[in-house]
Amino acid sequence: MQKVGPERFGVVAVDCAKARSKWMLCDFYGKVLIPPTVVEHQRAALELATVQLREAIEQHGLQDHIVAVEMTGTYHRPVQRAFRKAGSETRLVHPFAARHYRLPAHADTKTDDLEGIFRATVNGFGLLEPEWDETYRQLQILARHRRDLVKKRGKLQSQIRQALQRCLPGYADLFPEDDLWTRPAAMAVACRASRPETILSAGVGGVLRWLHEDQHHVQGRTVERVLAWAGNAAAADPLCEHLSRVWHALYEDWQTKTRQIDRVEQDLAGILVKTPYLLLLSHPGINVVTASELAGEMGPIEHYAHAKAISGRAGLFPSRYQSDEVDRANGPLARFRNARLRAAWMRIADCLVKCNAHYRGKAELWKQRGVDPRDVRSRVANRVTRTVFQMVGGRKLYHHPSQLDRSYVIAKLLEFHKEHATAPAEILRDLHAAAEQIPKPEQAAEAQPLQETCRKACRSRRKGPQAIGEVLLIVLAKLGVGKVQSELEVPSPDANVSDTGTR
């Protein structure tokens, strides 16, 4: 603006809604050059708006301009893309800023925010949105989709438990924590019986036959525990036959959601290996899913100047109240923040308190000192932002001074794929990409656990092809380690192993 002058600098203010938007063009002084105009969110209408803007720029001799679009969920995206495609510098104005500058003129009236958007823009609140690489946008979409599926599956579990309690009172208590969902035999027995008397009449042999027909293996003492419960269980609900139909349908939906979650998690791993956030797997307590969620919400690490920029965007700091001599800087967590990013950090904090010895010890110490559990999570999340920033920004693996905690990126990624029964071709693709992310000084250390796994796979007495051994040999060669190559010829990276098993 200083270069061309206020009279030659244009500001386009756009107030977005779901189906249409209203926009106007002013110079820097606020002189209206194009009055408020409604534009439908259609291709022809948006193209016409950009043509009108271009003609007005030529007519009034404007030498530069910006387009300020108020953020409105995702409804502002079509307008933003249309003006950006036409060559205009497009900026975003937060609704809070537009409202702040609207209130002095229309304190008691909720009206269009065009004037507020214009005032916020000329005062420096029209902010540039950094462009994200497509990889991070894919991670964000899939991570949020997985989180939504997990929430829906959790609701289904509550509904199933409620109906199951009425049909088989106390049966779910035989399987504490998540055993009811992680042990297939538990639900397989429940699906065969609508009331405790059915299990009791079948006996141990009948229950084992049910499980054998469903191809489930279980220890005899587990079946005996189920029979002991059935012998002393309370009477089922008189409508248990109808309730069984309900929760069976819910359980089928649960199984579908579980398969979808597994598939999305495999896709997340395939994208994560293309980003430096993969290095977070070397941090004890961070797995493929949590690293993917964090990468999807944070975006490229180059957009953060330092670790405080991360904690500031996530709102991992207490709010402050200051007036005259009163200064309370220890209020609750900041209200205005990126909620999804903060949630990702809080989930990481939960995982670290459970699985990381360093943060587990700190959490216990703070608990003994009477620190609020919510504050404990915030402290852990705030501290780990510094570690994550150094690891991802500096392309480094995790190293603790005690040398007690050590996780291996590729070994953890391989274990993830084994748990998800991923096809060997996809395992090879992901491990090959992960090897390229490992810093060269760390490649020899990363290869150590893989060498032992590879030796076991190559020496296995099982009949048939051992695809995991072949995959690991390719990855070890990628890491520059050839100590196990003499045991088995290293196949070409283009070898087709998609038709082999992962035994």
Question: TL;DR?
Answer:
With 503 residues, this protein is α/β, with parallel strands linked by helices. Helix content is 56%, strand content 9%.
Task: Write up this protein.
Helix content is 56%, strand content 9%. It has four domains: 120 residues, Nucleotidyltransferase, domain 5 (2-Layer Sandwich), CATH 3.30.420; 132 residues, Helix Hairpins; 120 residues, no CATH class; 69 residues. It starts with 8 loop residues before the first strand and ends in a 25-residue tail after the last helix. The C terminus is likely disordered. By secondary structure, the chain is α/β, with parallel strands linked by helices. Strand 6 and strand 7 form a beta hairpin. A five-stranded mixed β-sheet has the order 3-2-1-4-5, sandwiched between helices.
Adjacency order of strands in the biggest sheet: 3-2-1-4-5
CATH class of the largest domain: Mainly Alpha
So how many helices? 19
Question: Which overall shape is indicated by the principal axes computed on the Cα atoms?
Answer: globular
Q: How many individual domains?
A: 4
Radius of gyration: 30 Å
Portion in strands: 5-15%
Ranges where pLDDT stays below 50 over 5 or more residues in a row are: 483-503
The SSE order reads EEEHEHEHHHHHHHHHHEEHHHHHHH
Main sheet characteristics: 5 strands, mixed
CATH architectural category of the largest domain: Orthogonal Bundle
Would you report the number of β strands?
A: 7
Mean pLDDT: 87
**Terminal-residue CA separation:** 66 Å
Approximately how much helix is present in the residues? 55-70%
Structural class, by secondary structure, is: alpha/beta
- The CATH topology of the largest domain comes to Helix Hairpins
